[in-house]
Each structure stands twice: as C-alpha cells, then as structure tokens.
Request: fold
Amino acid sequence: MYQTTIRHLLVAAAFLAFTSAASAEQRGVTDSEIRIGQTMPYSGALSAYSALGKAEIAYFNRVNERGGINGRKIKLISLDDGYVPPRTVEQTRRLVESDEVALIFSSLGTAQNNAIAKYLQGKNVPQLFLASGASKFGDISQFPKALMGIQAPFRLEARLYAKHAVEKLGATKIAVLAQNDDFGRDYLAGLRDVLESRFEQVVTVATYEVTEPTIDSQVVRLKASGADVFLIAATPKFAAQAIRKTHEIGWKPTRFLSNVSIWISSVMEVAGLEAGIGIISTAFAKDPMDPTWSGDRGVKDWREFMAKYAPDGDIRDQNYVFGYNFAMALEHVLKAAGSDLSPENIHKQAYSIRDLELPMLLPGIKVNTAPNDHTPVKQMQFMRFDGKQWERFGEILTAN
Reply:
C-alpha cells in the first residue's frame, strides 16, 4: 500500500509539472482571462482610424458580458502609437514584456506592423488580423507568423482598378497619388502587375509623406500629366484633400479611391459631398447606411451592438464595421483553439479557417485561410459615390 501511495504521488506530481509547463507556454492566459494587445493611432494625423480599435474593444465587452470565450474573459489592451513606427515598437514591447499578452491583434498600419513583425516572430507571439492590406504580410517567407486582416489586399485592389480603367474605360494615362511607404507602393505594384511594360509610359506618380500639411501641389502636378484616370492611394486626411482639390481646379478624370478612405464622415464630407460624386472604390463589407440592408439580420444586429456597446460611435464610419468583423474573426479562432491557447495552436487555428461567413461581409465573400494562405479575404465589389452614399455595381470579383 505504501508503494502504491508513492506511485500515486509521483504520478500526481508529474501531472502537475506537465500542466504547469503547459500553462507557462500559454502566455497571457489564466483560468479566467485571455490578454491580447494592439496599437492604434488614437492621436496624430491618422486618428480617424482609431474607430477600428474602439469597435474591437466594444465587441469584446459584449463577448465578456455573454460569458467570454470558453469560460475566459477577453482583456484587450489597446495602446496609442500615434501612427509612428518607433512608438509602435515601444508600445508592442510593453504589451509583450510587461502585459504578457497572448497575441497581438489588429494593430494598425503597414509600416507599423512591419516594424514589429521580426520582434514578434522572435518572441513567438502571434500577429493576427493585421489592420493593413499590404500584400507583403501574406508572404509566408517573410512573415510566417502573421495573418492579414479581414480586408482585401491593396495590391489586389489596385489590379481591379487597373483592369477596369484599361478594359472598360479605355484609359491611356493614369495619375497616382501614393503615400510614400509600403501602403502606397502596393498600389503601384498592382498597377504594374496589369500594365507590365506599359507602366512607365502610362502612369505618372506623385508621392507624399504623412507629415506633410497638404498635397495640393501634387494634385496640380498630376493634372498637368493629362491623365484621364486618377488613383488616390491615400489615407483619409490626404484623400479628402485630393478629392477637394481636383474639384476646385476643375480636373475631371475618372477617380478611383483606396477603400481605406471611403468614410462618409471623415473623408467625403470633409472634401465636400459634391466634390466626390462619381468616385469609384471597392467594398467587401456591408455599408449600414445602404438601404439595401435595411432588413438584413446582420446589419440589424450590428446596429444593436453599436447602440449598446459603442453609443458614441459614428454609425456612418465603416471602421466600426471593420472592427466588428476583425474581432468576430478572432473570436472564431480563439473558440476553435479551445483550452490549448499556446502560440502553436493559435497559429494552427488561424491558418485553418474554412468558409467563415461573417454577418457584416458582403454575401458571397467568405473568410478562408490555410498554412500556405495567410490572406483571409480576396474578393471585392465595385461601388460609386453618388453625392450621398456609395452604390455598389457589378459582380463580386476575385482579384488575382
């Protein structure tokens, strides 16, 4: 009996050691909580994007009120980086080394996510649903532990614009206003994919820095190129300026607008609603202001969510829709991970999403990932601004 008791004690000790080791591997996880972190531009020139983080915080407040995920509450620690990459690095180090988060979720910005990727890979911290459409983050050879967000990649979006401009509009010259970083360069790469050797003859480019006060001079220079198509690959402040300036100087090319700047309140109204009439962009999420969705269950649920959990949020700002989609996708991954919230299993579940339908994505657009596919969304639909709202046209397109 004494030997049997000793054996039982040894087995119990071994089990405790195993479970303690397993728990230690699950950084940021306790019996009652999962800590996740992100950085957002709550200040600075791109603070308009802060609505994304506010929506995600609100979503997980709802999740927690309903009991959490697999019995654990979600603690989302969202820090301000002002859209400045060195500050993103500083805040991310704090999240990993002080707050000990289980993963980084939906940090915003291309240069920002690029600045922290190698650090997070070295620390074995998942970098999930990045709030950037830069195609580089879908390149597994460069970013094996990153996963793009619930948005179509910029480069694929630009390919659709190029094909439409050339094949449907017969464009001969294309002017591009591009942010001077990987965000802007992705749009140029998409145009080059389609135009190939004709790129240099067809495309005129003017770039800007996010620290510049205005891009009026760039727009004037681009008008002088004689372009019949103008692609605005810009973030909200500069997109609004470009829209307003083209209107003021009487330049009337067909305008395409990056879908990161389609916001009615922070872009179109700032530019002047009349100035934006006819602009073409792309959509992959439902617009709650579109009468098409007045009876849609997903939109009704979103409006109820906004009324209760983000009552001060602007329902015209689709960043709140995007944040809702991003957070819902992460909820799916964490639910699938179950009790094993190790980085390895979180990655495994993030890279095995099959035909996930989110209620605020356009019908027919589904989220899919695989170990060799870290780009969850690849489909879009064209839309045109009518002076009051965006109207979708054509079929759902798969950009490739």
